[in-house]
Amino acid sequence: MTVVLKVGDRSIEAEELLSLLAGYQMLPQFLQELLIEQAIASITCTDEEKTAACEQFYAQNQINSDEALGAWLGRYGMTQPQLEALATRGLRVEKFKQATWGPKLESYFLTRKGQLDRVIYSLIRTQDLGIAQELYFRVLEGEQSFAELARDYSQGPEAQTDGMIGPVELSVPHPTLAQMLSVSQPGQLWAPTRVGEWLVIVRLEKFIPAQLDDPMRRRLLNECFTTWLQEQLSQLGSLSPNPTSPSDNATPVAS
Q1: Structure pTM?
Q2: Confidence of residue 242 (pLDDT cuts 50, 70, 90)
Q3: N or C: which end of the chain has fewer CB within 10 A?
Q4: What residue segments make up the domains of the chain, in order of their start?
């Protein structure tokens, strides 16, 4: 038997290590880090990037002397080259994301844009058809404002905001409601519509189209990376975690 680690009086053998990682619920994270390390193995950094990354790492970990550096390396059982690899890891991951999905980002954005567009809308919900119809005609005829009626009659949290919701992405509301909003013009009022257990009266206030700006690029790159990583983990079979599918999440009528 090969001893790979000694902790106090206990010797950890190679055959035992996998079982310990699993028992401490550390195996999924360990596998994830291995997959990432394999993916970025060919990604390099310039000398200037290495220096800047190490300086930032030293500052974050309060390593301000050779003694402090030696103590840190000893605590984590690392060598100087391993520390430098750790310090540049985040940058190498970002380079991997950009090299892998950057050229495809515009087309991916277009496939996601329908969910990324944002809306501000007013909502009244009730479970009483008679009340829903009466409130709809009051708004339609201008007898009372939408805000006043939502405050007095809506049975959801939007009553506290005069019926106003948003801005939220179109992936947030119930799919039926999202479809209504996606084909609406600002100011368009919808007659009472069944959405889940509710009858809703909805009016689009503002449509805010998604833009492929720098924050959106970062978000979509991270999204592509996360999806790729989950797929890689799932291919490992029983050793992989069971990521929650977006479809498993309940979709509320409003945020």
Answers
A1: 0.80
A2: very low
A3: N
A4: 45-87, 118-208
**DSSP letters along 20-89, please?**
HHHHTT-HHHHHHHHHHHHHTTT----HHHHHHHHHHHHHHTT--SHHHHHHHHHHHT--HHHHHHHHTH
Check whether 227 has a pLDDT greater than 70.
yes
Burial class (CB in 10 A: 0-12, 13-18, 19+), 199: buried
pLDDT of residue 243: 43
9: DSSP letter? T
Spell out the SS3 assignment of 106-155.
Answer: HHHHHHHHHHHCEEEEEEEEECCHHHHHHHHHHHHCCCCCHHHHHHHHCC
Contact predicate 254/157, CB 8 Å: yes
| CA separation for the pair 4, 2 (Å, rounded) | 6
Look at the domain 118-208 and name its fold. Chitinase A; domain 3 (3.10.50)
Token look-up 């998604």 returns 210
